[in-house]
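Exercise 7b. Backbone tokens:
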């Protein structure tokens, strides 16, 4: 059986209901791919093309006619042509009068033209009902049947009836139409496919900035300082030791930054005594990219785990262990087991393992396929309660790792503390403020505010 056959059967509706012919202008990649899917969905398709010669590329059940002839056969015409060629439609304005024109076009740059392509099309053919749709679906996904990631089709237009006709086709293709309103929304819809990871920009820039900062910080403390004062060359630390210091530091700071906007929002709401007042823009944007911040944090935590696994096979570590054994043998002295150190070491490892396990669990539950299968309360429980537990475990892992090193003067080179000590600042602030916020005298009014109660109505908009 063809690998797409199940897909095709799912898309093919009851063909006993005769469907209206759909016309597609343009026999390029997108026109052909869309035409093929529309035929599978039970619609007759006619192509309008500059070249009416038969071609093996064109779906065999479709007719290929001139633009004028094809347009006369259908009430709905999909314009699968680049915007810069739209002026060929002007002479066809009379034939296109009253027809539904579907603009599927994209641009090369955000806001490339003063008006959206769909609005430009509406100006060129004023008698037609223009609808914007399908621009976020790719020809490749249509052809290969891999539409899972992009099932949503944004639709907008000024004519409700025309929009409804287009949405019916979208549904018949097994896709989900999302009505975005009037044609004014077209520019925004055209910008969607051109945006480069919009929610990831802040987390990635922040982690790059922090990585650069902590890299130079560790370089100064762990390589330049011993070189200057002890004439020791630890430059090879750049490869594993320093990355293995930066990764946990970033994982912990970024995880804390996932929860910091929540506590800031709570403080703002308590201060204002209402939830009906917008947060500052920076806080809104920060809250929107918490999931991405958490996933970047998880990536750093995973790298830390991998770097830690190779520690026993490192040449430097093996040399240090064997020279300790040799020195004990030469001095005829055996160092007794330090039970306190053994406890500390096992505890910080156990905290790290548990923290990482919950971290992975948080990452998994943020996947849409998993979060779609839990209800809102379950999702909040995992992301909030388990999230805070992860933060507590990871902070405790770092605190126990530090142990009595916090008090040792040798931990401060050029007055600079170890990087992991700096990484504790944000999580400790978040955890302390969160702890204060769960006191009933603050938690009760906050809960009431979040349920709609207002202490200072003058703050509400
Ligand atoms: P394409 O392969 O370059 O095809 C465009 C078609 O436009 C040509 O095959 C041609 O069809 C027609 N054409 C070219 N010059 C013309 C002219 N001067 N006058 C009239 N017709 C002309 O482009 P495409 O990839 O199919 O994209 C078509 C539209 O779909 C674009 O607006 C694009 O932004 C949009 N889109 C594409 C994708 C995708 O994945 N490719 C995804 C979403 C949206 P005839 O030879 O039959 O006349």
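Sequence design result:
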């Amino acid at each position: 059986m063809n690998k797409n056959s199940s897909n095709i059967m799912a898309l093919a509706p009851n063909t006993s209901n005769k469907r209206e012919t759909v016309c597609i202008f343009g026999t390029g990649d997108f026109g052909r791919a869309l035409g093929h899917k529309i035929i599978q969905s039970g619609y007759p398709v006619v192509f309008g093309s500059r070249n009416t010669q038969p071609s093996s590329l064109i779906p065999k059940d479709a007719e290929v006619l001139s633009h004028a002839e094809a347009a006369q056969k259908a009430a709905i015409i999909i314009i699968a042509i680049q915007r810069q060629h739209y002026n060929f439609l002007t002479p066809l304005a009379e034939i296109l009068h009253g027809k539904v024109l579907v603009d599927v076009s994209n641009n090369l740059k955000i806001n490339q033209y003063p008006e959206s392509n769909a609005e430009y099309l509406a100006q060129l053919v004023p008698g037609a009902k223009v609808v914007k749709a399908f621009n976020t679906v790719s020809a490749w996904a249509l052809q290969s049947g891999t539409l899972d990631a992009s099932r949503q089709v944004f639709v907008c237009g000024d004519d409700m009836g025309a929009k409804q006709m287009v949405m019916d086709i979208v549904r018949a293709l097994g896709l989900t139409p999302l009505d975005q309103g009037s044609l004014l929304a077209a520019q925004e819809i055209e910008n969607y496919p051109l945006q480069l990871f919009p929610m990831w920009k802040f987390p990635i820039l922040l982690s790059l900035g922090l990585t650069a900062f902590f890299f130079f910080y560790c370089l100064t403390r762990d390589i330049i300082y011993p070189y200057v004062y002890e004439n020791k060359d630890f430059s090879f630390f750049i490869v594993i030791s320093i990355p293995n210091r930066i990764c946990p530091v970033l994982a912990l700071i970024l995880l804390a930054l996932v929860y910091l906007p929540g506590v800031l929002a709570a403080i703002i709401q308590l201060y204002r005594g209402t939830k009906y007042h917008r947060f500052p823009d920076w806080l809104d944007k920060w809250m929107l990219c918490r999931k991405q911040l958490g996933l970047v944090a998880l990536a750093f935590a995973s790298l830390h785990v991998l770097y830690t696994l190779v520690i026993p096979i490192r040449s430097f570590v093996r040399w240090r262990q064997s020279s300790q054994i040799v020195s004990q043998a030469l001095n005829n002295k055996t160092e007794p087991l330090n039970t306190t150190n053994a406890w500390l070491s096992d505890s910080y490892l156990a905290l790290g393992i548990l923290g990482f396990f919950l971290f992975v669990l948080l990452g998994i539950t943020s996947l849409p396929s998993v979060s779609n299968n839990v209800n809102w309360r379950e999702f909040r429980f995992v992301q909030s309660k388990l999230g805070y537990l992860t933060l507590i475990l990871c902070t405790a892992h770092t605190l126990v790792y530090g142990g009595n090193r916090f008090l040792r003067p040798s931990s401060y080179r050029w007055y600079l503390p170890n990087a992991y000590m700096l990484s504790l600042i944000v999580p400790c602030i978040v955890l302390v403020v969160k702890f204060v916020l769960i006191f009933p005298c603050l938690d009760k009014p906050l809960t009431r505010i979040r349920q709609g109660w207002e202490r200072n109505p003058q703050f509400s908009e």
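Instructor comment: The longest helix spans residues 241-272. The beta strands are 22-25, 45-48, 63-65, 76-79, 100-103, 129-132, 152-157, 176-179.
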